[in-house]
Records
---
Amino acid sequence: MKRFIMNPPPGERKVGFVGDYIKFRLQIENGGSIESGWQAFLRTNLGRASISRKEIINAYFKKIPLFGASWHDVPMRIEGNEWVVEIPLTEVGFFKAKAYARDTRGWQHWPEGPDFGINIHPDQCRTGNIIYCAFTRLFNQTKTLERARDDKTEEYLQQLDKQGYTVIPQSGKLRDLKRELPHIMGTLGCKIIQLLPITPVPTTYARFGRFGSPYAALDLTAIDPALVEFDKKTTAVDQFKELTYETHKYGGLVFLDVVINHTGWGSFLQDNFPQWFKRLPDGTFESPGAWGNI
């Protein structure tokens, strides 16, 4: 029985970028010659991202089982004593592939081992990917001070806290961060602005710190009003677009830190889709309990 060798080897994982090519080779072990009438194919889901995505969505929303509809066979050509095929990388995502030979009876002969996998990234992410992690709240008037906390003000705020008032400190704005882009993108040479969550946070119940934790999102599709300058011409989304537009002018990218496995108390999802949240045996909502906070 013939044994086959694939290159890249089965089970191997690689990283590629859109615009690259990857060549697959299949040969008989010990350099054996290819018999007349034999064919080889690469079974893969490369180039079928849209089909794979649709199948995953249908499996979740329509409860249609996954059948691997994105997989297809690509014919390989003979070069000397091996079959080869070169595939262009055109889509971002994780894909798999494995080559096999088919004899004159139609029987398939596969190399041993699991599928080869490749993680394909956007072309613009090849090099120079320095990330600047920005917590927008900190870009206020205290950003250049050695110590942002003022003891006199803090003493007064603590008195208000004890009386049940909700004190929200002054926050940096998206426009404040935008004004720092010449330094971040130009002087420091960063390419990616990673924004800590900019969604609204609890200011009353289950509040973490005086301001509220950015990881306790109240609405995953909204922007915290505290991060926006008030004017009569723009919305919060408009001001977010201003930041992204300026970043793109520098050839940079904006990454959003989005919390998808928990929310703040009283979030839009908790109020409208409580069945999506985990419950304890007594029926209460289960809390991640970050830093001892409920």
Note: Residues 236-249 form the longest helix (14 residues).
---
Amino acid sequence: VRGLDDQIRAFYNTCRHRGAPVVKDAEGRCNVLRCQYHSWAYDFDGTLVQVPDEHEFPGLDRSSRGLIPVRCEIFGGLIFVNEDAGAPSLRTWMGSLADEWSMLDLDQRRIDFRWSRIVNCNWKCAVDAFQEVYHINTLHPRSVGLALDHAAAAMSLLPGGNSRMCVQLKSSDISKPATGEWSEGDLYRLTSVAHTLWPGLIVPWQTGGAKLITFWPRAANQCEISVLGLGTNWGEGPLPEDRQAANVAFDGIMMEDMLNLEGIQASLESGAFTGMMLGHQERRIYWFHEQLDRMIGAERLPPALGVKQLLSRFVETGGNKQRSGELNA
């Protein structure tokens, strides 16, 4: 909710009377947060402000029965909610990705695409599919495969399971610039850049915008994949036709991935799959699973299910200057 003080706050949607949902609409405007069951009402800071027949509750202390808050942090106009009160701050968790995102004017973007599907595959299987481009010539030969050179891809492992992938656009010339130095702007102009913010957010950047892809576990063999498109502000009126056409094309690409993922899940459940054999281009996948094991804790993992911790010495910890030098090399 956005309060009258213009601050964004988040709360569990649970009335402190008998646990009913306080609101049922996915979005909207109101003057007060009023429970749908017995009309207990809360202000936008979570304070309990009204109780019908309050005399029926002797000893009620309104100050101790407000809505229970959830951590809520904002970055570039995006709202991140975290149910773990002891987790690091969002900016700490993002690490060097925060520096890159700060250059991309996220708060100036406008939502131009929404997409969500339930997919019959484990969420980790789905995340794996979006962390490499080795598959694009086979799975997306008439779309992504035409635009990107999968053999000219650079994979960067970042702290905390985060990562970056830069893939040369076939239409671009990445020979060394006349100045002898690369800039971050060159990186986004000449390559397709994608970030993984561990665990469940993958962001492919495009000219003038980005697609925020999130992966939500629903069952052991099912997940929901959601996409939020952010683009430049097109002003008044409907979305321009070229943007609509680009969104239709992206929808088609996603559906190609969805069909493939359901087949992979069936293979995993068949008993015929004996484990992954990852190539060099696919090392972001391994890094993702290393971090997963670290977060679960080695003592909680069945020995046969853990992955060896191998890639920490390859993690990129320097700043922008170091990254530019590595790109030149």
Note: The longest helix spans residues 241-270.
---
Amino acid sequence: TSGLRPIRIAVQVQPQHTPYAQLRDVVRASEDLGVDIVYNWDHFFPLGGDPNGLHFECWTMLGSMAEMTSRVEIGALVTCNSYRNPELLGDMARTVDHISGGRLILGIGSGWFQKDYDQFGYEFGTAPSRLRQLDADLPRTIARMAHGNPPPNRRIPVLIGGGGERVTLRITAEHADIWHGFGSAQTLRHKNSVLDEWCRRLDRDPETIERSAGVGSEDVSRGDDLVAAGVTQMTIGMSGRTFQPDAIRRWVAWRDERNADRG
């Protein structure tokens, strides 16, 4: 389903194990290196390494990222729906959209990291109950984003992360502009076909949903397999400690070459 949609490169700046000044340097360097999007993530504690290591909050950081960048799109990969009232989240997104001059992507998912829930007093529930909550809350968030004064600079794109075929991909077909999946090219090809089928059932053009996947800083040859599987947004995860500008340069050069071929 990749059609002739341009290939885009994103960096996910993981806000863990790194002083904030260094995170700022990584965000700015990523923009300077030519990536299209810079994401962070929405957790309260590190996901790897020392579980009590340095960590910063997602949306406060997005407000800062909006000011420190001028060209890239920014967003969370992904916001946990459980952590904020849906209307509040919509107003936060609208505000960051204005701070950035219209560059916010609202990335959202149903949540999974139990430590966040336990330590911050949220009800963890079950994977199905968290998905039901996302299904109920997301239309409220989208409506609130549109209805604030002033309204957003654009219709804020929604990214949904997750691969559940019965619920997550149906919610994606209903609401999302970008889908972020995980796994091998073969897995992603299968998930893309399931998403396409949900789009058909809901009378949505599957071509209107950009497909995204995580890549390592490894050899960029994996990119060609992902494009063949329908993925056109490649996301490299890095913290301040693991920042590799050369890897970003390779991916950006690969993007430019492929987009020239496709154009």
Note: The longest strand covers residues 8-13.
---
Amino acid sequence: PIKGTLLPGSDADIAIWNPDIEMCYGVNVAHHRTDYNLYENWIIKGYPETVFLRGHKIVDSGKWYGKPGLGKYQIRKFGDVL
């Protein structure tokens, strides 16, 4: 399988989670292209420290290293569970 497992040939999408990080979440923290956030000013506990996308580090200690075009469309087979 491409997704959901750590095996040779799979995507290796991994998030290293720190359950002790506490922050006020919102657009100043999020890395998406909108100027609003449903969770604006929520105090959250737990946050990803490091994220790998297909084996490439895209987040490290809150710094974003992702680049446009890194996403990859995955076609779902009929009957796949969400």
Note: The two ends are 15 Å apart (CA to CA).
